[in-house]
Amino acid sequence: MKKNFMLAAALALSGVGLAEDKPATPATVEVGGLKATAPAGWKEETPANSMRHAQFKLEKQKGDTDDAELVVFISPGGGGIDANLKRQVNTFKLADDAKADDAIKVEDVKIGDYKGKYQIINGSYQAKAAPFDPNSKVTSKEGYSQLYVIFEDDDKKTISIRAVGPEKTIAKHKKAFEDFIKAFKK
Predict the structure, then answer these.
(1) Segment (H or E) for 111
(2) Contacts within 8 Å (CB) and 24+ apart, 98-105
(3) Which residue of 50, 70, 113, 144 shows the fewest CB atoms closer than 10 Å?
(4) Is residue 8 part of a domain?
(5) What pTM does this model have?
(6) How far is the C-alpha of 159 from the C-alpha of 78, rounded, in Å?
(7) Is 152 exposed, middle or buried (0-12, 13-18, 19+ CB in 10 A)?
(8) Is residue 6 part of a domain?
(9) How far apart are CA 27 and CA 31, in angstroms?
(10) In the chain, how many domains are there?
(11) How far apart are CA 166 and CA 128, in angstroms?
(12) Residue 2 is assigned to a structural domain of this protein
């Protein structure tokens, strides 16, 4: 009895088990002098490498095996918008019977005061542990989609925001992704 009382007292003093679970405060992402708050359902993660400015896990849709990943990149160049759009297409393999016009969509988009491009790709994602290493092992992930926005800021830095994951999961998060892009303001 005395042990149980002591344990309960220790837990009470430490706050373990007493505090209510509060949802995490949504992260604010700042790029190119613009800010936007990430949707509450996106789980902020520590960026996997120095090329990533921000990184989020997007919860998988029921029936999918993987969560989606959203990454914000800032680079001091990278070949410009068109070269990056082409690079993204090269990370996918389209189904043999798919027409590029059906599997890849590109449209103009506005991010704050900046003009950019919004690209959607469907197919088999060719995931690489080290994307720029030609010898890196490729894992083909069928039935994937990618939402990709790219623009250049006033300092000519290339900023891109990419969400990639299983088609159903990306479809679940598409509106939140588009709302996030529209939310960027000075």
Answers:
(1) strand 104-111
(2) 98/122, 98/123
(3) 50
(4) no
(5) 0.86
(6) 10
(7) middle
(8) no
(9) 13
(10) 1
(11) 16
(12) no
